[in-house]
Design a protein that fits this description.
Layout (H helix, E strand, L loop, with lengths): L12 H6 L4 H27 L3 H17 L3 H16 L6 H23 L3
């Protein structure tokens, strides 16, 4: 198996605990993440480009639960920063970089999660 990023960025411990190891339920949550979070990130990028801080805050808030459930600590930290800074109108110049970091990590995580769903 040739994996570009050998370091697993997610931690499914929480989902395993909540669903008592029910792989079908865990896979459903993973599929939901794969469908929703990339859309949220695309919308966040548009919000940053359009200086729509209210919508950016809302999207970060929505993405937070999905990211947290999958144990994506680094991405969660960036999402929390985006949420806080967009709400409080602080350090707005850092928002494009934060959203870009979230996008980059999401792309790696999506590849890794698709591997889980395919049984790799």
């Amino acid at each position: 198996m040739n994996n570009q990023s050998p370091v697993q960025l997610f931690d499914l411990s929480y989902l395993n605990q909540v669903f008592q190891g029910n792989q079908e339920m865990i896979n459903n949550i993973i599929q939901l993440f794969l469908q929703q979070v990339p859309e949220y990130i695309s919308e966040m990028e548009a919000c940053v480009d359009g200086d729509d801080l209210l919508a950016l805050h809302s999207l970060a808030h929505k993405a937070k639960s999905s990211v947290t459930m999958l144990g994506l600590r680094s991405m969660e930290s960036n999402i929390l920063e985006i949420e806080r800074k967009s709400k409080e109108h602080l350090e707005l110049a850092t928002l494009p970089g934060l959203v870009s970091d979230v996008r980059s990590e999401c792309e790696i995580v999506m590849t890794q999660l698709k591997g889980i769903l395919q049984g790799s």
